[in-house]
Amino acid sequence: IKKVTTETLRKLKFDKERITMLTAYDYTTAKMVDAGGVDSILVGDSAANVMAGHETTLPITLDQMIYHTQCVVRGVERALVVADLPFGTYQSNPDKALDSAVRMMKEGGAHAIKIEGGEEIADSIRKIVNAGIPVMAHLGLTPQSIYQFGTYKVRAKEQQEADRLLKDAKLVEELGCFALVLEKIPADLATQVSKSLSIPTIGIGAGAGCDGQVLVYHDMVGMNQGFSPKFLRRYLDLYNEISGAVSKYVSDVKSGDFPNENESY
Ligand code: KIV
Ligand code: NA
């Protein structure tokens, strides 16, 4: 199997072939997602939400993200594994940012890291890239800033914020980021950004003009019933499938149907 690299993603954009990405946080899921043929797997800090049940992504720690990344990497043969650096592990200064990125690569076994922001973290991006670590940027609705935004609504609808996003997108490319996630921004703006950059953009709620798409695994397989933004397409209804299977098991045990003779020694 030929492993996907940051160069592969660059070439996919050049060849106008769309890039696919999904999240995973554990070994078994990572195996299935890799087998399905995605180009890249994101160990997202959305683990704070879907794995741990937190309201926001802020509480998850670097140690916890490293653990999730180790689990995912063991299950992956082909996809490029990108891991989020969590809130508070890169914003304060470039040295700390590099230390966090190094831990994620060395202990976690990630192939690349992702961090949220543009100009305000430029020195950190530069430092991490200069250490030979591939960096994926993330602009638009950056969930680690949710308390500043106050809402999960679409970002950059106003010209001023759109201009700033375009500038930040150019900047992260100049700083050497290999790709850029665009989250929940108008499709026209995402198209404009994608056309103006040579590095690939990966969109979530950012329309079809991006060079690739990413979704949270639990959302796309329908495990997450409470979350249904317009941008989400559900491919399965696993919440009902799984709770239905559990309730069948419960009734089979209660009734004495399980285990039967063939299922006994
Ligand atoms: O943490 C995450 O899952 C993400 C994606 C939604 C881009 O950052
Ligand atoms: Na994230």
UniProtKB/TrEMBL annotation:
EC number from the UniProt entry: 2.1.2.11
UniProt key word Cell cycle: no
Residues involved in 3-methyl-2-oxobutanoate binding: D45, S46, D84, K114
Cofactor annotation remark: Binds 1 Mg(2+) ion per subunit.
Molecular-function GO term, any one: 3-methyl-2-oxobutanoate hydroxymethyltransferase activity
Localization per record: Cytoplasm
UniProt KW Magnesium keyword: yes
Active site (UniProt): E183 (proton acceptor)
Pathway field: Cofactor biosynthesis; (R)-pantothenate biosynthesis; (R)-pantoate from 3-methyl-2-oxobutanoate: step 1/2
Catalytic reaction list: (6R)-5,10-methylene-5,6,7,8-tetrahydrofolate + 3-methyl-2-oxobutanoate + H2O = 2-dehydropantoate + (6S)-5,6,7,8-tetrahydrofolate
Swiss-Prot/TrEMBL GO biological process terms: pantothenate biosynthetic process
Superkingdom: Bacteria
Family per record: Belongs to the PanB family.
Description of how the protein assembles with itself and partners: Homodecamer; pentamer of dimers.
Function in brief: Catalyzes the reversible reaction in which hydroxymethyl group from 5,10-methylenetetrahydrofolate is transferred onto alpha-ketoisovalerate to form ketopantoate.
Listed name of the protein: 3-methyl-2-oxobutanoate hydroxymethyltransferase
Originating organism: Planobacterium oryzisoli
Lineage: Bacteria, Pseudomonadati, Bacteroidota, Flavobacteriia, Flavobacteriales
